[in-house]
Amino acid sequence: MDYAKINVLIVTYKQADVIGRNIESILRQKEYGLNKIIICDDCSPDNNWDVIQKYVSQYPNNIIAYRNSQNLGIYGNSNKLASLCGDADLYCWLEGDDALRDGFFKTMQNFIIDNHINLEESIGLFGDYYAISPNGSKTLIKNDFAVKGYSPYGAYLRNIATWRASLFSASIIKQFKPVICDKGLILAETLFDSQWFKYMTKAYYCPVAGSIYYTGIGVSAIWGLSKSDSDYRTLETINMWQYLLDNKIVTKPEDVFWANAKIAQSRCVRRFSVCELLDFVKNGLKGMRGYKKNYMLLFLQACHLIVIGMQKALK
After folding, report:
1. Which tens digits make up the pLDDT trace of 145-174?
2. Which domains does the chain have, with CATH numbers?
3. Which letter, b or e, does each residue of 223-251 get, where b requires 16 or more Cβ atoms within 10 Å of its Cβ?
């Protein structure tokens, strides 16, 4: 069978205890189009690099590994890895603590063939994924925005779409630009991850649980450990949405409304205001036009803001 060639790209830092699980989950897909596994280690202080090198020595034709001479941070490392993506028909992005599920590539390759998908176009192939918490609870996250008619970039902004359990054509990653990393982690994450969706012209959904996301052990786990951390994260969120507006990265009217809603929401979390609450609801309703899936979430978030306001008023 003449399958599409797939390069798997892995960013990793200080993950010696899980990186082997990641690599082995990919190698089990080897017969179904795996071309190269390209890994970028961000100058890990543990023996992450040693573990990676063992796999390189065992699979020299399948694995290419790079080690940064100094720590670049997750999105500095991501910038570098995107530039080292190599040549393939499709690309799969993973973080070091992720894992693919058996049969993912096989199912996707058959989906491509059965649906006569043109990989020369800027396309994304989306599957579902499991999120497993540190206590072992398992949740299936649907990534089916494409069959609901949502635009890829708009779905990403509303947290309806993710790059997990997905494959992207070469014409998308070849358009990637390095993102700024000195204005906060949330902005860097948004600017980088959104490129998968920003450059996409067509999205497909295949109902397969393609990967596993182990929550609570990655970079995001450092957030929210104390009130000051939470306040800082909220301020970063405000600055991120404002940056997207000021630099005209978000331009569609419904996306502008959504950005203003998220700014009002974050301001309300930091310091409750009825005006900010009403601004969140007003802009949120306008921003959710065409994205009906999240109307209930919008209502629940508004209720949460009211509870926050009541708690602060009683103190």
Report:
1. 999 999 999 999 999 999 999 999 999 999
2. 6-220 (3.90.550.10), 223-314 (no CATH)
3. eeeeeeeeeebbebbbbbbebbbeeeebe
